[in-house]
Amino acid sequence: MKAHLFPILALAVPALAQTTVKDALVKHWKVSGEFTLAVAAAMPAEGYRFRPNPEEMSFGQLMAHIAGINLGACANASGLARPALPPKIAEWAKDTGKVEVDKETALQFMKDSFDFCNQAVAAMTPARLDTVAGPPARNLTGFEWLWAYFTHTAHHRGQAEVYLRVKGIKPPEYRF
Fold first, then answer.
1. Domain ranges (residues) in the chain
2. What pairs with residue 140 in β-bridges?
3. Partners of 141 in the beta sheet?
4. Which residue stretches of the chain are H helix?
5. Quick check: pTM over 0.85?
6. Would you say 83 and 72 are in contact if contact means Cβ atoms under 8 Å apart?
7. pLDDT in tens for each of the 176 residues of the chain?
8. Which of 25, 43, 74, 75 lies in disulfide reach of 117, CB 3.0 to 4.6 Å?
């Protein structure tokens, strides 16, 4: 290689490797969705009513909670309209303490919510990441909405993994 090309290549490699905040959010929301769905799928259908103690949500309710909260956060962050809740989930949302959510309903709702979030994050402009949005008591920038609820998903996914372990089920291997 000619000596005069080396400095150009040395400068080009870091430039090609740079990732924007949006790129990182797109990547990690996608991975988070895939991993959360794998955790949800690991619980057998009959385990969706399981709760480690009476004060906790059942496993199915926990999965619906993750998906529902993600819809709101991604809608607030992106400015896209929040999708309507499927009928069974709308019933659960009216009485979260009493209505159970079965595996098939939970998995489809979660898949749909992560698909919406992936679309919302991918559509965001840098300006939207800095735009303050949301209800008066919860005004956050688009970035803060995504980061806070990415963390919320991780928190409850960890809780779901404990539910699996209490039932003697090994959770899927962590993916990053």
1. 24-44+56-166
2. 133
3. 132
4. 6-17, 21-42, 59-78, 87-94, 103-123, 126-130, 142-166
5. yes
6. no
7. 555 544 544 455 444 455 788 899 999 999 999 999 999 999 999 999 999 999 999 999 999 999 999 999 999 999 999 999 999 999 999 988 789 999 999 999 999 999 999 999 999 999 999 999 988 888 899 999 999 999 999 999 999 999 999 999 999 998 66
8. 74
